[in-house]
Every structure is written in structure tokens, then in C-alpha cells.
Amino acid sequence: MNTYVEKVTSQITAARNVFDFVVLKDGRVLAINEYNAILYQNMADFWSGNIKARPHIDLTIPRIPRTKSYSVEFKRTSYVTFQIEAEDEDQAEDKAWNELRNGDYNYDDADWETNQIEVKE
């Protein structure tokens, strides 16, 4: 039977990294650690420390981001127009505020301010 593998070994580097090596019959070496499988020309190429782009397979599992629960609050501005009978603008505004507070307008659920007062003729 013809096989491509010459031998399989394991070694610990000086930096305490553990590698498994698959030495192929043509002399190339597949160095495998917990992060990558990297193809080198030979064992001398691996031990040379020469950093260059080499064929490799990334063995890391993508990290799944942990999610958190958030409460998001939005500020709502509403516009409501009231038709008010009054003697002047100040009285009309006071009456409109009372109508807003006492009516079914979700007074506490919005930002309210006087936008304009017009006399209707």
C-alpha cells in the first residue's frame, strides 16, 4: 500500500508550544497546534523561525459573542391641538394644559411644551 505519510511525531518548542508533526514522504511537514495546521518545506524550515506566508488551515472555532439584555428608552414628542374658548392667550394656554392633563392624551408618557398659540377667527 502506498502512503503519503513517513512518520508522525510530537514536540514541545522552547516557547512551550506543543506541535504534532506529520512528516510526508516528500519531506514536507504539516505542523499542527491548537490554532493552525501549517505546511512547511521540511523540519529545518519549521525550526528556522522564518516567518512568511505558508499554506495553512485555521483551526480556531469562531467566538460567539455573548449577548446582554438592554432596556432602550425613547423620548417621544407629541403634538395635540385644542380648540379653546378664552379671553386671552395666557388663559387659553392654561385651559389647554388642564385639558391635556385631564384628558386621555398620555400626559406622563411624552414631553410637552407649548409650540404655538393662534387666535382662530
What does this structure look like?
This protein is an alpha+beta fold and 121 residues long. The chain has 2 domains: 5-58; 67-121, no CATH class. The protein has 2 helices and 5 strands. The chain has a 5-stranded antiparallel β-sheet with strand order 1-2-3-4-5. A hairpin with a 5-residue loop joins strand 1 and strand 2. The N and C termini lie far apart (105 Å). The model has no long low-confidence stretch (mean pLDDT 84).
Principal-axes geometry comes out as: rod-shaped
Distance between the termini: 105 Å
Mean pLDDT over all positions? 84
Radius of gyration based on Cα positions: 38 Å
Low-pLDDT runs = none
Order of helices and strands: EEEEHEH
The proportion of strand residues reads: 15-25%
Fold blueprint:
Elements: E1 5-12, E2 18-24, E3 29-32, E4 36-40, H1 43-47, E5 56-58, H2 89-102
Antiparallel strand pairs: 1-2, 2-3, 3-4, 4-5
Could you provide a short overview of the structure?
Helices cover 16% and strands 22% of the residues.
